[in-house]
Amino acid sequence: QLQLVESGGGLVQPGGSLKLSCAASGRPLAPYVVGWFRQVPGKEREWVSYITNSGQGNYQDSVKGRFTVSRDNANNTVYLQMNVLSPEDTGVYYCAAKTGRWYVTTWSRTQDYDRWGQGTQVTVSS
Q1: How many CB atoms neighbour CB 122 within 10 A?
Q2: What is the mean pLDDT of the chain?
C-alpha cells in the first residue's frame, strides 16, 4: 500500500533549474528502487533516472551531467534535481517504485515498476 506523490514541477525558462520530490506514504520507501520517467507530449513514457536502495543513481544519456537523483530516507522522499533545463525536458514527470519480487534486468522500462505517482508537470519555455 505504498503511495507516491510527486511535487515541485512548474514553468521554468531554458537554462533554469527545478527540484522534484517524490514523497512516499503507507510504508518506508528505503528498501525499493525508485525510477523517474517523463511523458513527453505526443510520445511514449520515457525513462529518465533511477536510484537503488543504497543510493546509487543512473541516468538517461540526455540528462547525464544535468540531473541528479537522491534520496532522504528520514523524510521518506526521493528527489530529482534538474539543472540546465531545455524545452526538450518538458513533460509530465512521474516517480515509480518496484515493490514486487520479480527479477529485473533493467530499470528503464515502465513494466519494471508497480507503484506510480500521479505526475507533476514540468514546462521549459521562454
Answers
A1: 22
A2: 96
